[in-house]
């Protein structure tokens, strides 16, 4: 298995390319954002770069259907120990992942149909991709470059080579610059935004001990931090880049893991090691206002849709994992989706993603390091 891939090289590339709200091949700690649109793309100037077109993945018919019973079904998608960092193709029928099948091949993004079949190379061009796989962001010669895959046109973002994060509609990017510390609890972050071609670059907000936590679908930003270095705790805001307006959503010590739901209606976050014991835990808050509330569950989490959160509870006494579903509109009606006795599974390194339609979970197994598919009950 060690000969199948060079994890040192692969994960080094992950660390190089990863950024807030994004990852090498789709978010690891966040669900894939809503599909981006082509709004404003025609206005971008040409550069004459050669086109880069990912390989079309083969189809397999018919796709597996959800089980007619509430018992989830496990399906093995790959063999031989394959991959890291899975994410979903926008068609919802393929799972893409980072792999290097043998030492003679370069690392690339591979894909497998959820109905079965052998994995196929999707592209050997690595980077941060938009949700619709129309755009790629990657470092080159100390610069952050945005590429349109349809025709290969490229633009340099004036971030000084700092990682950038694409907006959901692929018309803007953000990045941060400032002072890292020490002292780290007073580190300054200047949040910058520009158009996708790098024009109209401007600073929109300065925070301390924090920074942007991702885009919302309407083009606003989630931001965590403090407006003054002497303030206590973290504040979570919604920032409107157009006018700089800030709307406070929540306040707590050591707020981490901020994750917006696909439609932007809710935000999940966790608080750990707070001096106020009542703050520690997994929290939900509406972006429309209202108090945050703490869930009874705590563990790894992803959004299934705009209101339902999937949680893999932290249970050190259990050798296997199980899925819990919490509806933000009625958290008291939380339910387990899997029974470890009936559907035993172990997820490696929190490496799991939810399909765009919320019907499936793809995950890397801790038992065999292969990619597996879990159907979810309605």
What does this protein structure show overall?
It is a single chain. This protein has 378 residues and is mainly beta. The chain has a single domain (2-41, 64-375), classed as Methylamine Dehydrogenase, Chain H (7 Propeller), CATH 2.130.10. 3% of the residues lie in helices and 39% in strands. It is built from one helix and 27 strands. The chain has one helix at residues 7-17; strands at 74-76, 84-88, 94-99, 108-113, 120-123, 128-129, 135-140, 143-148, 154-157, 165-166, 172-179, 188-195, 202-215, 221-226, 234-239, 246-252, 255-260, 266-271, 281-286, 293-294, 299-303, 308-313, 324-327, 335-336, 347-354, 360-365, 371-375. A seven-stranded antiparallel sheet has the order 10-11-12-13-14-15-16, with no helix packed on it. β3 (94-99) and β4 (108-113) form a beta hairpin. The protein is globular and about 50 Å long. Mean pLDDT is 84; it is low at 1-53 and 59-69.
Can you summarize this structure?
The protein is mainly β and 378 residues long. It is 3% helix and 39% strand.
Count of separate DSSP helical elements = 1
* Major sheet size, sense and barrel closure: 7 strands, antiparallel
Q: Unreliable runs, pLDDT <50, ≥5 residues?
A: 1-53, 59-69
Overall number of strands: 27
Helix content: under 10%
